[in-house]
Amino acid sequence: MRKNLLRASGAVLSAVALAVLFLRPASAGRLPADHFPNIELTTQDGKKVRFYDDLIKDKIVAINLIYTSCEYSCPLETARLAQVQKMLGDRVGKDIFFYSISIDPENDTPETLKAYAAKYHAGPGWLFLTGKKDEIDLLSKRLGLYSDPAASLDGHMPHLLLGNEPLGEWMRNSALDNPRFLAQTIGDFLDNYRNLRPSPQTAPAEAAKLSFDQGQYLFGRQCAPCHTIGHGDKIGPDLLGITNVRNRDWLVRMIRQPEQLLAENDPLAASLFKQYKQVKMPNLRLNDEETNALIGFLVSQSSAHDKQASAADETKTAGPAGEHVHPHE
C-alpha cells in the first residue's frame, strides 16, 4: 500500500491537489469543539497540554502521526516537515503550529521525542507529543489519520492533516508531498490567501523539470529533505561526488536496503549512522528503474559541478582577451 502511495507521487501537483479530503460541518463553518477529544498530551519538554484547548483552538495547524523507531515513512515525513517549516519562516509558532503525535507512546517518552526533534532541527512552534495509547488512537480516528496497522510496513500511513480551526476548514494530504506545495497550502489556502504568495514562475518551472527527469524528481521528493548536492551537509551528508567515492553496489544497497546494512554492521553505514546523530535512512522502496534513475541524476549533477569548476579555473588563468597567462610571467 505504501509502495503504491510513493509510486503515485509521480503525478503532477494539480493531481495531488484533487486528492485532499475536506472535513466541513454540515451547517456552520466551524466544527464543534466536542468533535475533537480534548485529551491530555505531553510535549517533548514535559509540559502537559490539552489537545483542543491548548493546541488547535483558534489556530492554523499541521498534524501528523509518527514514532521514533519507525524505519520507513516517519524519517522522511519529519525531514519533509522540517523543509516546510523553514519555508514558512517565523510564521511557525506565531499563527501556524506543527504537531507530531507519537503512536508508540510507551516507548516515545518526552526525552526520546526531544532527542528526535533535535535530530531533524525542528524549530519553535513544532511540538512532538506523547500520551495514553488508547486516547491517541481515539484522537487519530477523529482526525481521520488512523489506518490499519497491518496495512503498511510502518503501521500507519504518512498523512498530514492541515486545518484552520476558526474557519472549520480541514484537509488531509500526503506528508511526503512537495514541500513548496505544502507550504503554499498552509500559508495561502488555510490562511485565506493572505500570506506566502510564491512567484508564479517558481513552482511551474520546478514541476516541469520534475515531470521530465525521473531521477531529479526522486531526489527532490525522497532525498532533498535530508541531503544536498554541493551545498553542504544537512540532516545527512552532502551527496556531491558520492558516485565517485562509493562503490555502486554499496550505493544501491544503501538506497534500497539501508536497514539491512545497519543490521549487518556494515562499517561505512555504521559510521554514517553515528556521524549523523543516529538518524536512520528510511527504506524508500525504490525499484531497479527508480534506483538507476536516482543514481544517474547524482552522476550528472556531480559531472556538471566538475565541469563548472574546471571552467572557472580556466577563466582565472586567462588574460583579458581570453589568452592564457602563466603565473610566473
Topology:
Layout lengths: L1 H7 L4 H6 L2 E2 L17 E4 L4 E3 H6 L3 E7 L6 H16 L7 E7 L7 H10 L6 E5 L2 H10 L16 E6 L4 E6 L4 H11 L12 H11 L1 H10 L18 H4 L2 H9 L1 H6 L3 H9 L12 H29 L13
Parallel strand pairs: 4-5, 5-6
Antiparallel strand pairs: 1-8, 2-3, 2-6, 4-7, 7-8
Please tell me about this protein's structure.
The chain is α+β, with helices and mostly antiparallel strands and 329 residues long. The chain folds into two domains: 2-201, Glutaredoxin; 213-314, Cytochrome c-like domain (Cytochrome Bc1 Complex, Chain D, domain 2). The protein has 14 helices and eight strands. It has helices at residues 2-8, 13-18, 51-56, 73-88, 110-119, 133-142, 179-189, 202-212, 214-223, 242-245, 248-256, 258-263, 267-275, 288-316; strands at residues 21-22, 40-43, 48-50, 60-66, 96-102, 126-130, 159-164, 169-174. It has an eight-stranded mixed sheet with strand order 1-8-7-4-5-6-2-3. Mean pLDDT is 76; it is low at 1-29 and 193-212.
